[in-house]
Write a structure and sequence with these properties.
Elements lengths: L2 H10 L1 H70 L4 E6 L5 E4 L12 H10 L2 E8 L4 E11 L2 E8 L1 H49 L17 H50 L4 H32 L8 E4 H18 L3 E6 L3 E5 L1 H18 L5 E8 L6 E7 L31 H11 L3 E7 L3 E8 L4 E3 L1
Parallel strand pairs: 7-9
Antiparallel strand pairs: 1-2, 1-5, 3-4, 4-5, 6-8, 8-13, 9-10, 10-12, 11-12
The chain binds adenosine-5'-diphosphate.
The site of adenosine-5'-diphosphate has 21 residues, from helix 8 and helix 9.
Amino acid sequence: MSLKKMMPDLFKTIAFRLTLWYAGIFSISSCVAFALFYFLATQTLQEQTDRDLLEKARYFATVIAQNGIMGASKLAVIEAQAAGEKRIFFRLLYPSGEVFASSHMSYWKDITIDQGAINTLARTKGHVFTTWLITPNDQKARVLYSFVADNVILQTGVAMDFQSKFISAFKTVFIVSMGFIIIFSAVSGLFLSKKALSGVKAITRTANSITGANLEERVPQTGNQDELDLLAVTFNRMLDRIEALIKSIREMSDNIAHDLKSPLTRIRGFAEIALVNMDEIDTYRGMAANTIEESDRLLDMINTMLVISRAEAGEGQFLYTPVNLSAMVQEAWDLFVPVAEDKQIQFTCEAADHIEIEADAKMLQRALSNLLDNALKYTQNKGRVHVNLQKDSGNGGAQILVTDTGPGIDPKYFEKIFERFYRAESSRTSPGTGLGLSFARTVARQHKGDLVVASQLGKGTVFTMRLPYRNIQII
Ligand code: ADP
């Protein structure tokens, strides 16, 4: 991939955005912490300076009280020399602003008498602080005005060189630390987001490697129960479902192809025979009749498939009218009596009278026929088949039970037999399409009922079609 193509992708990645957020938040909170620390530190330094200046003023007040103005004038010079004339100065002045004594002031000549401060002092009789900037070396000075005797004001100032040194040291520490913090937070943000998103990468990789032919790949699950693990579990479950679905679609299309092939081959065979025996009109008739029969079988199969798939998709077009279920069961039984007689099967019917439901009569008839057809088809000669219509004491509806003494069904196939086109190995020799039970269950479910099976291998089978209360009226 070219660099040009990669760059916009990098900016769009969640990892990149997370790194940016992480670095941003980390740097901003560090800045806030630094600012807070700076504010507190300078505040404390200034308070300390103010306390020192007040201490000096008190000292001057004591000296004036004991030695008078002259003593204070001398003290101003001595104190400034002792501390350093560039560090501190003292001026003694009258409330009018007239200076009458001071320490050596050449370094402090910028600092004049602030008349505003003196006026405030005169009003409050306490002390006033101001801050000056001495221009040549951009140094700050803290200045105190305070009464040291009745008519004497002391103006004393101290260079805030300690604070300036602190600020410049702080600046250096701040720049170096911030540089380090930004790099550190970006690297750790990138590392953390990459680590957090590694699960997503695994899912993407698996999704990419899945093709029509390869559906076995699964995302590795960590078992941590975190969001990504749950996503992996959900994704794997989705793959399981897709795999099962594709498998059943494949099976179904194989079955459809197989089931369509047999009648088509037979139709082709009839046509071939008709071609060979060209002059016999009876042969033509026979061929035409066989072709129609096979075509009907095909059409019937296709229609049944359509009914099932439409109903499953929620588009079933059923026509509900009041249906006398008692009569319908009796008629269906009548219809199959000759088949039962052929196989010498003891075929009995017991239908409770006057059970009427709202139903699609044609669909229900076909579903019932499928159940009876199966029972008679799979029960060996001289067996027994019984059909029974009764009120369902469980849900107050009705139920039709078709019981036979046939080969029975292995419980592991109880669900399979209702799938489209499923036919048990042993049943392949009997005619059928594998759609009968699937159709019957679809019809029952469309009527808000169900079709269930109970069976014992070697003993027989009972199919129960339940039709619930809300579709039922007992006359
Ligand atoms: P078909 O009968 O055309 O094979 P069905 O959908 O009606 O298709 O039935 C599916 C499978 O269920 C049958 O192939 C058969 O193996 C089994 N089956 C259905 N009814 C019975 C029954 N009464 N006794 C035993 N097996 C049955």
